[in-house]
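Hi team,

Below is the intake form for CASP-like protein from Salix viminalis. Please confirm the fields before the structure is written into the shared record.

FORM ID: S-0412
PROTEIN: CASP-like protein
ORGANISM: Salix viminalis
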Amino acid sequence: MKAEAVESGEASTIIATPKRGLNRGISIADLILRGFAAIGTFGSAMTMGTTNETLAIFTQPLIRARYNDLPSLTFFVIANSIVCGYLVLSIPLSIFHFIRSEAKITRIILVIFDTAMVELLTAAASAATVVVYLAHKGNASANWLAICQQFDNFCERISGSLLGSFASITMITLTIFASAVALSWN
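The structure came back. Fields below:
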């Protein structure tokens, strides 16, 4: 009987080791994705926030295009800044999950806040995408002209800012999936 207890104890240790290794791997992926998402949101906020172009036309005074002329782009900068701040503040908790991969409650809290942040970032990026689309294409029905022929640097910067934000949305979504997988393994 004693031999059976030792064998079953050994078997449970062998099975538990790959689970812990998988949780550590997921924690490392979570940390890396969080870092890259923070860089992406910071870059998007900085690029959009510093976008400014002035156009001199002979018949009119100087015409200026700035991000804060449009409320959707202002919302985009604020939302990216909030999400970047959250991601930077959540990195220590992600490091804690690497050290103690069995923690469940903090991982659940992160999943909840990550979901809220990805919703905020998606809303902001979607609102800014509409403005960028109108800047590139215009709308003939509403008599809105495309401004990107005149303000090409402005349009390139706001388009690039959107790419960084959508990449960050993808990374945060992958972080949520990774955390959900880690929770299901615990």
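SUMMARY LINE: Helices lie at 2-49, 71-99, 105-137, 152-185.

Thanks, M.
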